[in-house]
Specification:
By secondary structure, the protein is α+β, with helices and mostly antiparallel strands. Strand 35, helix 24 and strand 36 (828-830) form a beta-alpha-beta unit. The active site is at 404 (4-aspartylphosphate intermediate). Keywords: ATP-binding, Cell membrane, Endoplasmic reticulum, Endosome, Lipid transport, Magnesium, Membrane, Metal-binding, Nucleotide-binding, Phosphoprotein, Translocase, Transmembrane, Transmembrane helix, Transport. Residues 823-1070 form the P-type ATPase C-terminal domain.
Length: 1103
């Protein structure tokens, strides 16, 4: 960041203007009085976060911004500064362990980033200098350099294409590393550039760097001797992005316009907004409670200490006289010091190591999703992808699912079904159209087919004689054997390939585009050529695209295709009625429909359109708005030819998946840009709407109905929702929704949203159609911020779904045919919709139960650990005497009890995956953060208090006669603490063993290994005189303790008594319903305190 800021400062006035001027090849143009080269940043890429010099301070600063780490740092400093009862090592060592592990992890990740940066920055590239090809390191490229790139190489910076080895001046690139799309994109050279680039004198004026991959505005001034400078517009089609790869083109030359951290790829490095799970919020709430308990304990002990010392003879007994310094110490300062000492003594109630364990559980647990073989799709040879591991448990808490339709619920695998031409329904039999009426409409029929062959951006991919042809749609290759006159196609949308192949069935074949000439072969096998004049590109706002072509006879034609809602207002009204019925019928049957129109342009009309398009494309400011204005001007007064019907089949197991999600208690909303009839048919096919579902529709036929919208909402919301066995579905379109979200009249916006939400929340499924991408995100945000803050999940496959994927608590990307932008921006990516069922019902369920148990267990075992220490102060005159040795204080959370709970949180399956998938209703049992509510938390806290009291007073009962050895030797206070600690370690470990339902060799190893390690360590620590210790409190204490039969007996009895309540509850409690005992026994104990009557009677896995 510092380097980037310095570069910007060195760049002079670069940021004070809206454009930059670049001299191609660093050659001054003739009309420049003084050539002063501009200063831009170098081509060095820096994705790393640290350097050797700033790693330690920067990493420590970031780690101590966490409240828990900062708290333990304060405790450590208090132990160092103040005379506290425990050694600073007891707090310092665990803190050091946590900080070190985190620093090593982050340092390793940054080393990988440094390595990746060096591979990019040191890569050798070819640059033209003084007519020679010179090899340079990539980081030394400067803005204005002319760079040579050969086939299959990646572009080292953002380049303007000047020259290509292809005769038509084009090149093909793939942008898989940028947006995941591996289809071949066509880019074009700047017209009228010199073949000899050394003789080219030109300047480029373009916009300042900005991160939008698909937007670029600029113009190029080409200077030739004794001629006026030629001005050529530059757009995204001329820009080759860093990270993209050159394909099917031997060599290109381009001039660098953006380098280093100003390339579009680098500007897209910025991460997504941080999402926090509900578990993390619960941890913070519980931490606050335990912090209050800690402060309360310190206040109570400090108060009681001075109350006790106020009695005569207690403050200064004869055997412990105060020094003069102690007598002169300020009373309030002494009280504050004692308060800090008690805080230090009891600080272990805050589990600092829990944060490390949670991070490790999330990180390691995410691999189970990646490794799951059920998520592997043989078609694309890919499995699931985890982009963030911070939300694993959130997969088990989803309440609302927002899904796209095309490519998510459906396959996005289009097949041309039928069409309607001039109001007559036509279908296909044996390579000929069959019309329901006499074929006097052959002229319109052929015009319609020509429109399908010309109005698109499809590229033809010729195959060799022995090759297998493929149709490439955004990286998905559909393989098929080569037939006569059959060729592969490359397109950015499967709709376009379906329409072109549909026209092929009916005798019109698109042969390709060569040097702005489009060739088609008609039914008589004659080749027709059309000169491509302009392409009016598709965009989601216009929802249509057009081409302007010129026939050999000189006629200028405009062909347009798009959604019926965008075409109908732009054609003659009398033509709409003939087509509308067929469009609505096809939409009802679930087909995707497009309308096709044309217009013959006069010479004057084309001249105006051509001038407007060229001027708009040369504009540096508001280019897109100016282009759309020209598009709208020329796309009027068209003649409607017909409409197409394309089938998009349902995804595999889409209906079963949606049914399972609804059975799990989730509410499914379909957010789509398709028309209502098509989307409604898909919802019925997916079983979101059942035959008995009562559908409530909220649409406005005209703007005049706006004033009645509030009354419609009020009427719908006032109905009785409590009707038995009646499901409701709600349908709303984008136009109505925009009014609901942004009302402009008398009723307040919150009232609109409140009524709308009230209706939606009482419906099992909601369909929002004709929606823009921004509206999808608005819907998700509205539900996410509604009362109760429900957990939301968005799933989609295209770029138009990115906004709602980023907005939801959990974003799922489908590796589909609409590119990989959704995958790049998602938290999790899966190959197909059917995998969502296992991701939520199995993985999500298990992740939540595991981490919920981990969090509660950590607080419980630390309460058990520190409560005897608190009780001990009542019997030692509040002298801050520790009950446990410093080694035990230090290693309790790090070594003795950490590994069993980590293994449990990774491997536990309280119910088998098969049962979870077969019984979606089990998902409801953990909904609404059920295991981390205050009721389970109270249970764990009471359990910790009970066992802590039992540990302390049970051992105190044993010490009523301290002569516990055969030789009459008396046990001391360190023996007392060691017995308590031994009972504690065995009890909390065996408690976890009782909760474990799915045993593996790893569980056995860490549970019994941890207990064995504790025994070994205690013998080892107390059996040797350590020279670095000033006093050795546990010398032979553990061995002497185990030589007493009474100590053995008390340890065993106390462990049994501590675990007895849970064992009795398992034995005595009677489950309700057939087979419910198996379910009941399969759940961890804290789960039993949830309302048991909600658990469904099913047979559960029993390991």
């Amino acid at each position: 960041m510092l380097r980037r800021r310095l570069n910007r400062l060195c760049g002079g006035d670069e940021k004070r203007v809206d454009s930059r001027t670049i001299y191609v090849g660093h050659r001054p143009c003739p009309d420049t009085e003084a050539f002063i080269p501009s200063k831009f940043c170098d081509n060095r890429i820096v994705s790393s976060k640290y350097t050797v010099w700033n790693f330690l301070p920067k990493n420590l600063f970031e780690q101590f911004r966490r409240i828990a780490n900062f708290y333990f740092l304060i405790i450590f400093l208090v132990q160092v500064i103040v005379d506290t009862p425990t050694s600073p090592v007891t707090s310092g060592l665990p803190l050091f362990f946590v900080i070190t592990v985190t620093a090593i992890k982050q340092g390793y990740e940054d080393c990988l980033r440094h390595k990746a940066d060096n591979e990019v920055n040191k890569y050798l590239v070819t640059v033209l200098e003084d007519g020679r090809s010179v090899k340079k390191e990539s980081e030394k490229i400067k803005v204005g350099d002319v760079v040579e790139v050969v086939e299959d190489e990646t572009f080292p910076c953002d380049l303007i294409l000047l020259q290509s080895s292809r005769e038509d001046g084009t090149c093909f690139v793939t942008t898989a590393s940028l947006d995941g799309e591996s289809n071949h994109k066509t880019h074009y050279t700047v017209p009228d550039t010199e073949k000899d680039l050394q003789a080219l004198t030109a300047t480029i004026e373009c916009e300042q760097p900005q991160p939008d991959l698909y937007k670029f505005v600029g113009r190029m001034h080409i200077y030739k001797p004794e001629q006026e400078p030629a001005v050529r517009s530059l757009g995204p089609e001329n820009l080759l992005l860093k990270g993209a790869t050159l394909k099917n083109t031997k060599k290109i030359y381009g001039v660098a316009v953006y380098t280093g951290m100003e390339t579009k790829m680098a500007l897209n490095y910025q991460g997504k907004s941080q999402k926090r799970s509900a578990v993390e919020k619960s941890i913070n709430a519980f931490l606050l409670v335990y912090l209050c308990i800690l402060i309360s304990k310190a206040v109570v002990c400090t108060t009681l200490k001075y109350v006790w010392q106020s009695k005569e003879g207690q403050d200064e007994p004869w055997y412990n006289q105060k020094t003069q310094k102690e007598k002169d110490t300020n009373m309030y300062l002494k009280m504050f010091t004692d308060f800090l000492s008690f805080m230090v003594l009891f600080n272990f109630i805050i589990p600092v190591s829990m944060y490390v364990t949670v991070e490790m559980q999330k990180f390691l647990g995410s691999f189970f999703i990646t490794w799951d073989k059920d998520f592997f799709d043989p078609e694309i040879q890919e499995g699931a992808l985890v982009n963030t591991s911070d939300l694993n448990e959130e997969l088990g808490q989803v309440e609302y699912v927002f899904t796209d339709k095309t490519g998510t619920l459906t396959q996005n695998n289009m097949e041309f079904i039928e069409c309607c031409i001039d109001g007559f329904h036509l279908f296909f039999i044996s390579c000929h159209f069959v019309c329901l009426f006499i074929s006097i409409y052959q002229e319109k029929e052929e015009l319609f087919l020509r429109a399908l062959c010309l109005c698109h951006t499809v590229q033809v991919k010729e195959a060799g004689s022995e090759e297998v042809l493929t149709d490439q749609v955004d990286g998905i290759d559909e393989m098929r054997p080569q037939l006569e006159e059959e060729r592969g196609f490359i397109a950015s949308s499967p709709d376009e390939i379906a329409l072109v192949k549909g026209a092929m069935k009916y005798g019109f074949t698109f042969l390709g585009l060569e040097s702005k000439s489009m060739k088609i072969k008609n039914r008589e096998n004659n080749i027709e050529e059309y000169k491509l004049l302009h392409v009016l590109n598709f965009d989601p706002v216009r929802r249509r695209m057009s081409v302007i072509v010129q026939t050999k006879s000189g006629e200028t034609l405009l062909f347009c295709k798009g959604a019926d809602s965008s075409i109908f207002p732009r054609v003659k009204p009398e033509e709409v009625d003939r087509i509308r019925m067929h469009v609505e019928r096809n939409a009802t049957e679930g087909y995707r429909t497009l309308c096709v129109a044309f217009k013959q342009l006069s010479a004057e009309e084309y001249a105006v359109a051509d001038t407007g398009l060229r001027e708009a494309r040369l504009a540096l400011q508001d280019r897109e708005e100016k282009l759309i204005a020209v598009y709208n001007q020329v796309e009027t007064g068209m003649s409607l030819i017909g409409a197409t019907a394309v089938e998009d089949r349902l995804q595999e197991e889409a209906a079963e998946t949606m049914e399972a999600l609804q059975g799990a208690g989730m509410k499914v909303w379909v957010l789509t840009g398709d028309k209502m009839e098509t989307a409604k048919s898909t919802c019925y096919a997916c079983r979101l709407f059942q035959r008995g579902t009562e559908l409530l529709e909220l649409t406005l036929e005209s703007q005049n109905e706006y004033q009645f919208l509030y009354f419609k909402l009020s009427f719908l919301s006032c109905r009785s929702w409590s009707t038995a066995n009646q499901d409701y579905g709600f349908i709303i379109d984008g136009a109505t929704l925009s009014i609901v979200m942004n009302p402009q009249h008398e009723v307040d916006a919150s009232q609109y949203k409140s009524l709308f939400l009230q209706i939606c929340q009482n419906c099992t499924a909601v369909l929002c159609c004709r929606m823009a991408p921004l509206q999808k995100a608005q819907i998700v945000k509205m539900v996410k911020t509604s009362k109760g803050s429900p957990i939301t999940l968005s799933i989609g496959d295209g770029a138009n779904d990115v906004s709602m994927i980023l907005e939801a608590h959990v974003g799922i990307g489908i590796k589909g045919k609409e590119g990989r932008q959704a995958v790049r921006n998602s938290d999790y990516a899966i190959p197909k919709l059917k995998h969502l069922k296992k991701l939520l019902l199995a993985h999500g369920h298990l992740y939540y139960v595991r981490i919920a148990h981990l969090v509660q267990y950590f607080f419980y075992k630390n309460l058990c650990f520190i409560l005897p220490q608190f009780l001990y102060q009542f019997f030692c005159g509040y002298s801050q005497q520790p009950l446990y040795d410093a080694a035990y204080l230090t290693m309790y959370n790090i070594c003795f009890t950490s590994m069993p709970i980590l293994a449990y949180s990774l491997l536990e399956q309280h119910i088998s995956i098969e049962i979870l998938l077969d019984n979606a209703t089990l998902y409801r049992e953990i909904a609404n953060n059920a295991m981390l509510r205050w009721r389970p938390f109270l249970y764990w806290t009471l359990l910790g208090i009970f066992q802590g009291l039992l540990f302390f007073f049970g051992v105190r009962f044993l010490f009523s006669n301290p002569a516990l050895q055969d030789n009459g030797q008396v046990f001391g206070n360190w023996s007392y603490g060691t017995i308590v600690f031994t009972v504690l370690v065995f009890t909390v470990t065996l408690k976890l063993a009782l909760d474990t339902r799915h045993w593996t060799w790893i569980n056995h190893f860490v549970i019994w290994g941890s207990l064995a390690f504790y025994v070994f360590f205690s013998f080892f620590w107390g059996g040797i005189i350590w020279p670095f210790l000033k006093q050795q409190r546990l010398y032979f204490v553990f061995a002497n303790m185990l030589s007493s039969v009474s100590a053995w007996l008390v340890i065993i009895i106390l462990i049994i008594l501590s675990l007895l309540p849970e064992i009795l509850l398992v034995v005595l409690r009677k489950p309700r319903g057939p087979h419910s005992r198996q379910v009941y026994l399969s759940l961890p104990f804290p789960f039993w305190i949830l309302p048991f009557y909600h658990i469904h009677p099913i047979l559960c896995y029993s390991p």
